Amino acid sequence: MSSAWSSTPWSLSLFGELAESVGRAVPLALREAERRALAGHEAMGLTSKDVYGHLWQTQHEELVRHIGGLDGVRTIRPRGARYDLLVVGENNVILYPWRYGDDLRKSVDQAKMRMSEVRRNLLDLTPTTPDAQLSLEEADKSEEQLRTEAEEAEQIVADMATAGRMVLIAYASNPQSGLLRIYWGEATQTDESGLLKWSVREQLPITTEEGGFGRGWGPAPSPVRPVPPSTGPGSGPRFDDAPLEEPVLGVRPPLTSPDTDPNAPQPGTGSDD
After folding, report:
1. Helix, strand, coil share (%) of the chain residues, nearest 5
2. What pLDDT shows up at residue 88?
3. Residue 121 resides in a domain
4. Judging by beta carbons within 10 Å of its beta carbon (0-12, 13-18, 19+), is residue 239 exposed, middle or buried?
5. Which pLDDT tens digits describe the chain residue by residue (273 residues)?
6. Which keywords accompany this UniProt record (predicted)?
7. 227 contacts: CB under 8 Å, gap ≥ 6
8. Residue 18, in any domain of the structure
9. What pLDDT sits at residue 20?
10. What residues does 165 pair with on adjacent strands?
């Protein structure tokens, strides 16, 4: 897919005049977030993906860094959260990044999102009433813990209720290949398994702008060209510069007739035993 991207009718309907800037900034932000996560992965010298898993945090930070400075963009941080969410434009559209996979064997339609209270509310942006009955996990918590969690949930719902819609940024990546694919669109939760139903989905280019190539580790290498033979002054001798010897041709002498004497001694074969 080409790195050139232009706003679409759907993105214009949501972001207005910010559509072009936001759409071009998202791949750049994710590329930088992935680069930071990979740097931590390599610095630890680990073969596991534990440190690379910090991408869940760097993705939010880089989106804020690349988009948060635009006019008409603000951030919200639900109480207790360790990241900010972007709210874009007059339509109060929340941007939420989600790494749906680490390869391309599974399509984004088959990917399942691990659900949390934040994600559920983001997907439908509908304030919910907490269940009065405690779960098994909640039964072991103190009243103060339950009160704190309830306040956090109320704050999250209140923040999201002021937002009109949510745009999900779904992408696949891994430490070896970097970013593999990026989509954005609108989706809802279909069931408790975390399967999503997309009402709108568009693919964004994995940008190679700013001189990047592939993973973004610098400019693309120049193509290799054939080197012509050196024939000018100062060039060294070549291995095939020596003169070729002419073959000497002559008449072959006639063959002698085979020995037909039956009493001639025969050469021995095998061992002396």
Report:
1. 30, 20, 50
2. 94
3. yes
4. exposed
5. 445 789 999 999 999 999 999 999 999 999 999 999 888 656 555 555 554 767 888 999 999 999 999 999 999 886 556 889 999 998 889 999 999 999 999 899 999 998 877 777 777 654 344 455 555 555 666 777 777 766 665 665 566 666 578 999 999 998 888 899 999 999 988 888 899 999 999 999 986 454 333 443 333 334 444 445 555 555 555 555 556 566 555 555 655 555 555 555 555 544 444
6. Coiled coil
7. none
8. yes
9. 95
10. 93
Strands 165-174, 93-101: pairing kind: parallel
Instruction: Provide the token pair at 70.
Output: 């635009």
| Boundaries of domain holding 180 | 9-204
Q: Are 218 and 194 in contact (CB under 8 A)?
A: no
Query: Which among 187, 186, 179, 185 has a CA at the least distance from the CA of 202?
Result: 185
CA distance to 20, 59, 119, 123, 202, per residue, from 11 (Å)? 8, 21, 22, 18, 9
Choose among 103, 77, 226: nearest CA to 173: 103
Instruction: Annotate 52-64 with DSSP letters as a single string.
Output: GGGHHHHHHHHHH
Q: Map residue 182 onto helix, strand or coil.
A: strand
Number of domains in the chain: 1
Distance CA 49, CA 61 (A): 20
Q: Do the domain assignments include residue 197? A: yes
Cα–Cα distance list, 81 to 55, 57, 206, 258 (Å): 16, 11, 29, 104
115, 194 in Cβ contact below 8 A? Answer: yes
Q: Measuring CA to CA, which residue among 33, 35, 38 is closest to residue 51? A: 38
196 contacts 184 by C-beta, under 8 angstroms: no
Residue 109 maps to a domain: yes
The pLDDT of residue 138: 52
